[in-house]
Design goal:
single chain; about 650 residues; alpha/beta; 6-stranded parallel β-sheet; 18 strands; globular
Length: about 650
C-alpha cells in the first residue's frame, strides 16, 4: 500500500485510486471528504504521474481552496511542486479565464468585481425607476432575484427590463458580478473553440467539491471544462444541498449517473465528527425528504448526550435561557457531564448558535453580553460593513485601475471625502459629459462649473491622496501601503480599529513585491469570498451565525435557535402555498445545522416571536417532531418571569 494512503479508511482509499473517467463520491456529513480530495490530488501526481499543471480542483470557498493546496503539498513533500495545480473557486477560475480571453466576447481585461455593498447601492439607485419600493430590504430581495435570474444562461432579450438595466450599468462601469463571471465564461467556451481547446489542453483532470450546490450555469461550465476528457470527479451530498436561493439545483447531483452512464460511484459513510445520538437524530429528520440518494452514515464516536430540546415563552426568554446554559457549561455547572477529566477545557469559541434568519442575532447578542460572555457575529459581509475598510478598498481599486470611476464616485459620495451631495453629483456628471476619468477631475475640480471653493478644497484632498498613493506604490509593499493609507486617509486617529488591523494583516501574503502589482491579486481574493469566510480576526468568543453561514464548519457545542414552524422551515408570508421542494431544502438546511455539532446539540424554540413586525405563534418546527424521541431530552422551560430574573443571580464570567 502507498504509505501516504495508510491513514485513510477503505472507502476513502478506493475513491482516491479512481483517477480516470467520471466518478461520483457521495460523502455524508463528517466523513472526511476534504481529506479524501486532498489525498486524491496528491495521488494523481505521486502515483498516476499526472502533470500538476493538468489538474483542476474546484471548491466553493477561497479558504477551502487554500487549505486543499497546502495539505496536498504537505503530502507530496519537497520533491514535488504543486504550485502549478489550479486550486480555486468557480469564480476565481472564471476571473482568470476572462482576464486571459475575455476580449474575445467583449469583456475588457481591466474589469473589476462589484463589491456586495456597491451592488446593493447600484440596485437601490436603479430600483426607483422600476418599482415603488427602493428601500434597502427591497434592494436585498432584488439582489436575490437577480441571482436566480442569472443562474442559467439565456439571451439578453429574455431578461427582465430591470435586469437589462442592471447589466447595462455594470458594463458602463466595467464591472462584473459573481453570476457574470460564470455566464461570461460559459459564453467564451461555447462560442470560441480555440479558447476552449486551450482550456482542455491545460486541464485534463477536473474535480469539484460540493457538487450538490452547483447551479445550471456552473453545471454547463463543468461540462465545457471537461470537454473530450470526461475525467470529472464530483464530490458531495444531496442531503446538504442548501443554496437553491443562489440558483443551485440538487438535480445536477442526483442525475450524475444519467449524465455520465459509465460513472463509478463511491460512498464515504464513516462519520468522524458527531457523536452517535446526533447522527441518529439527523438521520430521522433527513429521511423524510424524497429527493435524495439513500446512504448509510456510520458513527465512529460513542453515543454521547441526548439532544436537549426546550420551548420558551418568547424570543427574549429563549435568548436568556441559551445565555444561562452557556454560562453554566463554561462555569462548571454540569461540566462533568460534558467532558471527561482527560479532555481539554471548553472555550468560548467551541460554542456556536445557529439560526435561520439573521434578525435573530440581536436578542441573542444582548443576552450573552449581559452575562459577560464574549460573542462574535458572523454576518458574511463583515469586511464591507466597515466604512473605513470600504474606503481603503475603493482606494486600492483606483490604484489597480485609475479609470475605475465607480470607486472614485463611491469615495466622493461617502461622508469622509464628500464635498456635499450636490457637488459630488455635479463633479461625477461633468466627468461623464467630458468622457474624462473622475480621478483626473479630482485633481482639478476648479475647472468644473458651479463648484464652490470649499467643495473644491475637499475634492482636492482626495485627489492629492490618490496621487500620493500612486507615487508611493511602486516602492512600497502592500501591507505597508495599507497602513500608510489608513493614517493618511484618517489623520488624527490614535489607533486603527480591529477591522482595519485585520484588513492590513490579510495583505501580508501579498506583500512580497511592489504594492501596485500585488493589489490586484489581493482585491481578487477579497471580492471572491462568500458568506462565512470573511477575514475578520479569529476571536475567543461564542459564534453567532446563520445555518447557511455554518456550512463546512463544526463545533463541540451547537445551539439551533428559533426552531419553529414558519421560521424553520421559513415561510414568513402566510399567503404562500407550501412548496414541497422548498420544504425539502429547509429540511436539508436543518440537517446541516444539526450535523455541525460534535458533542452536544441544543434545539430551542419560542411560543411567540416577533419577526419583521409581526408575532409568530406557529409552534415548534416539524423538523423537531421528526427526531426520534429516543434521541431527545426535553427540558422543562422556565417561565418568562424566572428567565427575566435569572441573569441577576449569577455574576458575569469576567466580573472577578
Amino acid at each position: 500500500m502507498t504509505d501516504f494512503l495508510k491513514t485513510l479508511n477503505a472507502e476513502q482509499r478506493a475513491a482516491v485510486r479512481i483517477v480516470n473517467g467520471p466518478v461520483l463520491i457521495i460523502a455524508g456529513a463528517g466523513t472526511g471528504k476534504t481529506r479524501t480530495l486532498v489525498h486524491r490530488l496528491a495521488y494523481c501526481v505521486r502515483q498516476a504521474s499526472i502533470e500538476p499543471r493538468n489538474l483542476l480542483a474546484l471548491t466553493f470557498t477561497v479558504k477551502a481552496a487554500e487549505e486543499m493546496r497546502e495539505r496536498a503539498q504537505a503530502l507530496c513533500g519537497e520533491g514535488i511542486d504543486l504550485r502549478s495545480v489550479t486550486v480555486g473557486t468557480f469564480h476565481s477560475l472564471c476571473f482568470d479565464l476572462l482576464k486571459q480571453h475575455g476580449d474575445l466576447i467583449g469583456v475588457p481585461n481591466d474589469f473589476s468585481i462589484i463589491s456586495p455593498v456597491e451592488q446593493v447601492n447600484l440596485i437601490t439607485q436603479l430600483a426607483g425607476s422600476f418599482f415603488s419600493d427602493s428601500s434597502s430590504p427591497a434592494a436585498q430581495r432584488l439582489c436575490r432575484q437577480l441571482c436566480i435570474e442569472k443562474s442559467m444562461p439565456c439571451p439578453a432579450e429574455q431578461l427582465t427590463p430591470f435586469c437589462r438595466a442592471y447589466q447595462s450599468e455594470l458594463a458602463r462601469r466595467v464591472l462584473l458580478d459573481f453570476d457574470d463571471l460564470i455566464l461570461k465564461t460559459v459564453e467564451l467556451l461555447q462560442d470560441h473553440p480555440a479558447a476552449a481547446a486551450a482550456v482542455h489542453d491545460r486541464f485534463t483532470h477536473v474535480s469539484v467539491d460540493e457538487y450538490q450546490d452547483v447551479s445550471r450555469a456552473q453545471y454547463l461550465l463543468l461540462r465545457l471544462l471537461c470537454g473530450r476528457h470526461a475525467n470529472l470527479c464530483a464530490v458531495g451530498d444531496a442531503d446538504q444541498a442548501i443554496y437553491a436561493f443562489r440558483g443551485a439545483q440538487v438535480e445536477n447531483f442526483l442525475n450524475f449517473q444519467i449524465d455520465f452512464p459509465d460513472a463509478r460511484v463511491c460512498y464515504l459513510s464513516e462519520n468522524y465528527r458527531s457523536q452517535a445520538v446526533i447522527l441518529d437524530a439527523a438521520r430521522h429528520v433527513i429521511r423524510h425528504n424524497k429527493k435524495r440518494i439513500e446512504k448509510e452514515l456510520i458513527p465512529v464516536r460513542p453515543a454521547g448526550a441526548k439532544i436537549h430540546v426546550v420551548e420558551l415563552d418568547d424570543e427574549q426568554a429563549e435568548a436568556d435561557w441559551i445565555a444561562a446554559e452557556i454560562a453554566s457549561l463554561l462555569g462548571g455547572i454540569g461540566f462533568d457531564s460534558m467532558r471527561s477529566g482527560d479532555e481539554p477545557a471548553m472555550s468560548f469559541s467551541d460554542i456556536a448558535i445557529l439560526y435561520r434568519l439573521r434578525q435573530h442575532s440581536g436578542t441573542l447578542f444582548k443576552a450573552l453580553s449581559r452575562r459577560g460572555i464574549p460573542v462574535a457575529e458572523h454576518t458574511g459581509t463583515w469586511l464591507f460593513e466597515n466604512r473605513r475598510v470600504q474606503i481603503l478598498l475603493d482606494l486600492l481599486e483606483i490604484l489597480v485601475n485609475p479609470a475605475n470611476d465607480s470607486a472614485a464616485a463611491d469615495l466622493l459620495r461617502c461622508g469622509h471625502f464628500s464635498p456635499g451631495e450636490r457637488s459630488a453629483e455635479r463633479l461625477i456628471a461633468e466627468a461623464g459629459r467630458r468622457g474624462a476619468e473622475l480621478v483626473q477631475l479630482c485633481r482639478t475640480p476648479e475647472s468644473v462649473p458651479g463648484l464652490q471653493q470649499r467643495a473644491c478644497e475637499r475634492i482636492r484632498i482626495l485627489g492629492a491622496l490618490i496621487e500620493d498613493m500612486q507615487d508611493r506604490s511602486p516602492g512600497m509593499p502592500l501591507y505597508q501601503l495599507i497602513n500608510w493609507l489608513g493614517n493618511a486617509a484618517f489623520p488624527g486617529q490614535l489607533e486603527p480599529d480591529d477591522d482595519m488591523l485585520a484588513f492590513a494583516t490579510a495583505a501580508l501574503p501579498f506583500s512580497q513585491g511592489p504594492a501596485a502589482q500585488a493589489a490586484a491579486d489581493f482585491l481578487k481574493k477579497i471580492y471572491l469570498m462568500r458568506e462565512g469566510e470573511t477575514i475578520a480576526p479569529l476571536q475567543e468568543a461564542v459564534r453567532l451565525m446563520t445555518a447557511h453561514g455554518a456550512k463546512g464548519l463544526e463545533f463541540p457545542v451547537v445551539f439551533i435557535a428559533g426552531a419553529e414552524e414558519d421560521l424553520f422551515p421559513c415561510r414568513l408570508d402566510a399567503r404562500e402555498e407550501e412548496d414541497e421542494a422548498r420544504v425539502e431544502e429547509e429540511r436539508r438546511l436543518f440537517y446541516v445545522a444539526m450535523t455541525r455539532a460534535r458533542e452536544r446539540l441544543y434545539i430551542t424554540s419560542a411560543r411567540s416571536r416577533f419577526v419583521f413586525g409581526r408575532c409568530l405563534t406557529a409552534g415548534p418546527s416539524r423538523f423537531v417532531a421528526e427526531i426520534s424521541e429516543g434521541c431527545v431530552h426535553r427540558l422543562a422551560a422556565p417561565s418568562s418571569r424566572r428567565a427575566d430574573k435569572k441573569p441577576s443571580q449569577q455574576l458575569p464570567l469576567f466580573d472577578f
